[in-house]
Amino acid sequence: TRKIIIDTDPGQDDAVAILLALGSPELDLLAVTAVAGNVPLPLTAVNARKVCELANRRDIAVHAGCDAPLSQPLVTAEHVHGKTGLDGTDLPDPTMPLAEEHGVDAIIRLVREGAPGEITICALGPLTNVATALTRAPDIAARIGGIVLMGGAYFEVGNITPTAEFNIYVDPEAAEIVFSSGIPITVLPLDLTHKALIDRTRLDAIRALGTPVAEAACGWLDFYERFDVKKYGGDGGPLHDPCVIAYLLKPDLFTGREINVEIETEGRFTRGMTVADWWGVTDRKANATFIGGLDADGFFSLLTERIGRL
Ligand code: BDR
Ligand code: CA
Predict the structure, then answer these.
(1) Residue 244 CB partners (closer than 8 Å, separation 6+)
(2) Mean per-residue pLDDT over the chain, rounded
(3) pTM greater than 0.95
(4) Which InterPro entries match (predicted)?
(5) How far is the C-alpha of 80 from the C-alpha of 107, rounded, in Å?
(6) What is the pLDDT of residues 82-93, one digit of tens each?
C-alpha cells in the first residue's frame, strides 16, 4: 500500500476523491488536512469529516489547517459548490472530532515519522498548507515521495480568471513554493480534468450501485454537474479532484510529460497562471510532470467500482 495524506477543501469533487481513496485498499490514508478554498476553513473541516463518516471511517484523522492564503485574502467558490461547499446532498453534522493538531503540524510530523520517500501528498485545493509545512520544516522536502496535485491549466487556460485555475489562483505564493521545492510534482491541470466529464450515463452507473454512499455522491455530482454543464455547454461537468487519486491507483490511464512550470505571481491579468513550457522554448529545467491525457472510460469505471466497495 501507498501512504498518502489528502490536503483538501471539500468541495463535491474533493469529497468524491476522498471516497475514491477510502474505497481503494492500495492506499493507506494517514490523514486528511483541510484548507480554506472552495469555502472557508470551518466548513471544509466539517465537510471532510462528513465524508469520512459517510464512508464509515471515523478513524481517519481530520485536521484543520490554514484558514487564509499566504499573502492575500481568501477567494472562495460558492458559485460552483454552493453555500456549504457540499450542496446537493445534505449529510448530518459530523460527530467524529476534529484532530487537535494543526494540519500543517500533522503534515510535518507524518512526513518525519515516515521512511524517506514513503509518503505522497495529494493536494486537492489551494497549496497553503503544503507550502507552509515546507517553509516551516524545510527538511521534509527531501522526505516527501511526491506531490500529486490538481491545479493549473495550459491549453484550457483558466476557470476563475481567463488565465488562472482556481487552486493556484487562490494562493499563487504557496504554489510557487511547492513548484520550486525540488519535490517530484505531478500536475493534473484543467487540460486533463476537462476530459473527465461526468455525464448522465456515468452518473447513472454510479447511482445504480444503490448504496447510501453512491446516492450521496450522486447528489453532489448532480449539483456540480448541472452547474458546469450550464457553464461549459459540454457533456457534463469536469470531475477534477478524483483524477489525483485515480492517477495513484492506475497511472496507465494517464499520459503526460516532464516540463518546466512556473507560477505567475505578479501579472496584471495573469496572476495565478501556470506558465508551462510545453514546447521547451526556455532552458528552464523540468520541475513537474504535466498530465494531459486520460482514458476517461477507464477512469469512470475505476471510480464506480471503488465507490461500490464503500
Ligand atoms: C479545483 O477548484 C475547486 O473548485 C475544485 O474542487 C478543484 O479542486 C478546480 O479548478
Ligand atoms: Ca478541491
Answers:
(1) 17, 122, 123, 124, 148, 149, 150, 188
(2) 95
(3) yes
(4) I/U_nuclsd_hydro_CS, Inosine/uridine_hydrolase_dom, IUNH, Ribo_hydro-like
(5) 28
(6) 999 999 999 999
154 Rama class: left (phi>0) / alpha (psi -120 to 50) / beta: alpha
Return the biggest CA–CA distance within the chain. 53
* Residue of 16, 18, 38, 51 to test ligand 1 pocket, by largest number of atoms within 8 Å of CB: 38
- HEC per residue, the chain: CEEEEEEECCCHHHHHHHHHHHCCCCEEEEEEEECCCCCCHHHHHHHHHHHHHHCCCCCCCEEECCCCCCCCCCCCCHHHHCCCCCCCCCCCCCCCCCCCCCHHHHHHHHHHHCCCCCEEEEECCCCHHHHHHHHHCHHHHHHEEEEEEECCCCCCCCCCCCCCCHHHHHCHHHHHHHHCCCCCEEEECHHHHCCCEECHHHHHHHHCCCCHHHHHHHHHHHHHHHHHHHHHCCCCEECCCHHHHHHHHCHHHEEEEEECEEECCCCCCCCCCEEECCCCCCCCCCCEEEEEEECHHHHHHHHHHHHCCC
- CA 126 – CA 167 distance, rounded (Å): 4
Ligand 2 centroid, distance to 85 Cα (angstroms): 10
104: cell is 500543517
**How far, in Å, CA of 274 to CA of 188, rounded?**
12
Residue-wise pLDDT tens digits, 177-189: 999 999 999 999 9
Is 240 part of the annotated catalytic residue set? Answer: yes
Measured from the CB, is residue 240 less than 6 Å from ligand 1? yes
* Polymer length of the chain: 310
